[in-house]
Amino acid sequence: MINIVRLSLNRTWKKLTLKQAMVLFILSFVFINEYVVYVIQEWRWAKVRPLRHSEDEVRLLLVGDPQIQGYNGEPPTIIGSITRWDSDRYLRSTFRQASNYVKPDAVLFLGDLIDEGSQAQDEHYSEYVDRFKEIFKSPTNVENIYVSGDNDVGGEGGDFKTKVKVQRYEKYFGNSVAVQKVKFLDFIKADYDFITSWNDTADKAKHLVKLLSGRFRIILNHHGILERFKRELYPRSEWRKGMKYKYKDKWISQPIVKMFSPNFIFSAHLHLPTIHICTDCTELDKEKYQWEGNTLTDVPDQIKFDLNSPNLVEIIQPTCSYRMGVPEMAYGVAVIDKNGALEYTLLWLPSRYIQLYLYLALTICVIVVVLFKLCISKIWPNSRKQTFYGRTP
Fold this sequence. Notes:
Radius of gyration: 27 Å
Shape: globular
Helix content: 25-40%
Number of helices: 10
Structural class: alpha/beta
Largest sheet: 7 strands, mixed
Membrane topology: Multi-pass membrane protein
Subcellular location: Membrane
Strand content: 15-25%
CATH architecture of the largest domain: 4-Layer Sandwich
Distance between the termini: 27 Å
Transmembrane segments: 21-40, 356-376
Strand order of the largest sheet: 4-5-6-7-11-8-9
Keywords: Membrane, Transmembrane, Transmembrane helix
Pfam families: Metallophos
CATH class of the largest domain: Alpha Beta
Mean pLDDT: 81
């Protein structure tokens, strides 16, 4: 039976014309590039703890710097439409794949949701939001927690943060400074950018402290926190009291660490996976605290932490968008037990640029073959139609 099938396939293959063979090859190439590659990549993902459907566990999917593309930064022709479509499609398909793999209780969007969000006109902004929420669809039982970034509300370089930008962002994504609860966890959206210091941010932070009731507290911020000077994280009065030293600087420092006493921090912005570990964040007797920073490009299957530890850990989530110009993209996964055990891993994504370069190479090859075929037909206009193997049918 096997020999009969093999013989039939051989006969069919030998009857293919060059045009038919090219079409079959192109379709196979697209199928591998757009489906098989992602299946293979998922096989390589670290195993996530089996789903328990329990109040004693929280499963988190972390999304860093998706930055869906706008109109100003893209070519105004059909090329711009194609590049936006491809970027959206990549984010949509990889997010759906990661979400199905993790089955999270909550999705944490760690800022820079829209690439041109801070500078967009209102009509474009509304369209960007619709695109964003269509790309990152989650089941109704999944909590979506949005953190604002400098691309969303300003705050980096000459793109200043204004109340108008913040109000527009909050209209679509909720309060930028807030506490959101998921089971036994309090997620604190600090909205601290270290560039624009607002007096009312400290007042909002004081209000948030009264809302904290969870067993563990996790700060969510777009910009990294632990790499800053200590005086930028504590109330200035406590800084002066602890150091007995008057330091005159431009920062209206927010009491982030001291007020919230967080057990963990998730941030983004750098586009690269990084971990910061601080061993003495609660001490006030020195200008800098001791922290270690390492990249997580070679992260093992799981990194385990204890939220009850006196050390404060900050994980900086890499981007999930290939448009950010970094070679490696990933979604993050964190599974947290009620006893404080946290397991973190990264779901690495395929390189879209390599796939696009392969499409470019395929296009060039097809053009060369077509031109060669046209040249042959000009030289030998009476040549008979050839099969793929060079035989006449």
